Amino acid sequence: MRLVPVLHLEGCGTKVPWFESDKVGVVFKMMTNQANSPADHPRAHTIAELKASGWESRPVRAEIRENVAKIVSSGEPLETGLVGYEDTVIPQLANALLAGHDVILLGERGQAKTRIMRSLVSFLDEWMPVVSGSEINDDPYNPLSKHARDLIGDMGEATPISWVHRSRRFAEKLATPDTSIADLVGEVDPIKVAEGRYLSDELTIHYGMIPRANRGIFGINELPDLAERIQVGLLNVLSERDVQIRGYSVRLPLDVMLVASANPEDYTNRGRIITPLKDRFGSQIRTHYPRSTQEEAEIMLAESKAGAVVPNVVLSFMTNVVARISQEARSSAKISQRSGVSVRVSVSNYEIMVANAQRRSLSLGEDVAVPRVSDLGALFASMSGKLEFDTFEEYAEEAIIAALVHEAVLKTFRTETDPAELAPLVEWFGGGKVVNVGDDIASSEYRKLYTEIVETPELESVSKAIERLTEDPSSDAQIASAIELVLEGLYLTKRLSKETSGTLSTFRARR
């Protein structure tokens, strides 16, 4: 069973691709708006009403464990929106959640580590009661902060409670060298001191991100980049629970699930995670890139934000070519595999390819943009900044990228066509035929060539092969795209010759 490639957050009824961070943000906003809707709030407004309702307090790990167990026992997949992880990462993630572990996600860039962290919020209860006015989500039955303890001490079971939606129970921090312990744990607020409170008064504390994530999930991206002295403070909060703020000891038995991400290179070389902190993580899960062209293409299409200034149709073989380019790059000895080849390379390549096709349509006045093989020449701009090359030769980058593109086109050609059907076309070129193609040639010129092929009885199998590559054979732009794949494929299989000058390529019989 394949995973649905969406992030499904219960309670908001919305699904979006996991890889679209801005849309995830939109979902969070939608959930927050729903959380602010009075009609959606649970009815208990005081501790007395909460007890009468039968609500029971649970640690965050127990809460997640029980919700995951319900999903697993029902036979449904964990809808974290991950494509290609159903037999690898997902089972490990389910095990870690059922075990109540803190988790570290280890993998190269662009492997959805952050998306996994953010998706975990969907396994929390939809609503959680807190003491009203609490900065650290105080449990009404077990308050931690002085504010909550004093309020309950004064009002007892009449203490007002508020309800927090699960979308607000996730906090995330990018670990940077300048991150301070005050950012994570907290600091004395000078304004509160100036108001007349003593420095030792707990009410002078401005809580950091971790205490504010109490009874929720706290995610740290690129954990090895966090200074070791800050990691020590993090360990103190998450293990010993004893926090030192300006010499004042505050006992905060926080209930926080920690999820962190790290790049393997950073994990061992550029930075390191101190041994006691590594020991704190119950599970380490290794992520990976899409292992098939189909998975790569599925993610690429879902994440792409290719514009539609002109209506565009991307034929399936062109989608596969772009997906294969990244697959080829991940196995190339000339590309640094230590930093990885992110799926973002595929997404950017796809968007640039479509943009080049749209630019042609706009300049030639065509009503639809259909990318062709000649549009792949524009991919150098989208690839060169995202790949790290293991070469110091001048201009080698362009040659490496061109080789990746050629290999992807060749494999797609062999998958999509039958050599026997195209053999008559090779013989036709042997009669002295010459064909020019390019990303600035009008689709109508390709239609003329196709009409000539159709009207030649010996080329009947060729015309059928070209038609099968299209979705609509009546579209000049689609015919142009199919013809370019056939010609380029015959060249790459050494059955035709090609000469290139600028954006123009000329195909003729091999000499």
Question: Helix and strand layout, with pairings?
Answer:
Layout: E1 7-9, E2 14-16, H1 21-35, H2 47-53, H3 60-73, H4 89-99, E3 103-106, H5 113-119, E4 127-131, H6 146-155, E5 161-165, E6 170-174, H7 181-184, E7 186-188, H8 190-194, E8 205-207, H9 209-212, E9 216-221, H10 228-240, E10 242-245, E11 248-251, E12 256-262, H11 264-270, H12 275-280, E13 283-286, H13 293-303, H14 316-329, H15 343-364, H16 380-383, H17 396-416, H18 419-430, E14 435-438, H19 443-454, H20 460-468, H21 476-492, E15 497-501, E16 504-508
Parallel strand pairs: 3-12, 3-13, 6-9, 9-12
Antiparallel strand pairs: 1-2, 4-5, 7-8, 10-11, 14-16, 15-16
